[in-house]
Amino acid sequence: MPSPILVRLLLAATLFTFVQITFAQNAENGASINDTACFLAGLPVSAGSPLEPLTREPAWQQHANFFNQAWSKLDARQLQGIRAWQAEYLPEATAPMPVVYYMFSGPDLLYAEQFFPNASVYILAGTEPIGPLPDVLRLGAGALDPVLRNLETTLKGVLSFSFFITKDMKTDLQHEELKGTLPIFYVFLARAGKTITNVSFITLDKSGIPDLSSLSARSKAYTPGVRITFSSGEGGPQQTMFYFTTDLSNDGIKSQPGFMKFCETYDIGGSFLKSASYLMFVDGFSSVRSFLLNHSKVIVQDDSGIPVSFLNPEKWQLRLFGNYIGPIDLFKQNFQPQLQALYSQSNPPPIDFGFGYRFSRKETTLMFAVHK
């Protein structure tokens, strides 16, 4: 008799196949998913795409210029530094990884992919809504300008400071034409040079099994999500990203246990935590904290993730980088004297990029924990 985990995976595969076929048929009548991602990212679309005429509109050309400049600055200020740091100090992060967990992520696939570029599966979770499939053709040329400007505004925070500003996102992601996190995922994947092959909406029941019947009538007991498959050019390995809209507090997991049950079907892998609002410092988020400690062989985080007091030195080898001067004023109650002592004792190497709330290079805190 097959194991419960195998049953779940088989059911998931059936659901994904159904949804992928539906979306593939929709794409035939309009722009492909990958062309839509390129268009939103200010990149050229494929020849003959229905979106090609819109790339000649002044609104899109201004949008492309914005992203070309913003991404060039981001690469020089952040991404090049991350790649150089990995090559010198953390080659383990670039090795193949079965799964990477990024809790409290919002739509920030950008940094998870930068720090763990060769993960087979990325599992992200946040409270931000997913939204519908972006349909640029429905807008027409006249409506392009305000829609594209809003997308630029939404991304300015993460492009400038390495994190999304939560209070701003609550407004930005409600824009009627490009709603939710999907357009942001599209931009990050296209700008990372990925080719999107499929997008599937999924809904998890309480046992973590994708539930087909709930796609049209989701109740509060179900956890909505999206699955995006992509590759790095022709012939590159396929990678998968899941994003789920869910409450990761203990009470939230109790009322919607499907997400954590879903995560348990995956291997032990890597965890990534950045600008996590210090939520796992309190007992009300102990369940997700315990899950990450028990399902990670490596953890990359700033000081807002798992408190260093939970990284038992008998179980975890801790490498420190950058500096620790404590949280920003908004979270000053989460100062860690133990972490300050570790930094003062170890003389960590500096890092040449900003990370987390302390995005100044001289103030950035970065930790790499390896399970022994």
Overall pLDDT score = 86
Strand order of the largest sheet: 3-4-5-2-1-6-7-9-8
Contiguous uncertain segments of 5+ residues: 1-29, 166-173
Assign a percent range to the helix content. 25-40%
Quaternary structure type: single chain
Give the SSE order as H and E letters: HHHEHEHHHEEEHHEHEEHE
Number of strands: 9
Measured distance between first and last alpha carbons: 35 Å
Q: How many DSSP helices?
A: 11
Rg estimate, integer Å = 21 Å
Q: What is the total number of structural domains?
A: 2
Structural class: alpha/beta
Q: Give the percentage of residues in beta strands.
A: 15-25%
Q: Strand count, sense and closure of the main sheet? A: 9 strands, mixed
**Globular, elongated, flat, extended or rod-shaped: what is the shape?**
globular
Describe the secondary-structure layout.
Blueprint: H1 4-28, H2 33-40, H3 58-89, E1 100-103, H4 109-115, E2 121-126, H5 144-161, H6 166-172, H7 182-191, E3 195-204, E4 223-231, E5 238-245, H8 250-255, H9 258-263, E6 269-273, H10 286-294, E7 296-301, E8 316-322, H11 337-346, E9 365-371
Parallel strand pairs: 1-2, 1-6, 2-5, 6-7
Antiparallel strand pairs: 3-4, 4-5, 7-9, 8-9
Helix pairs in contact: 2-7, 3-5
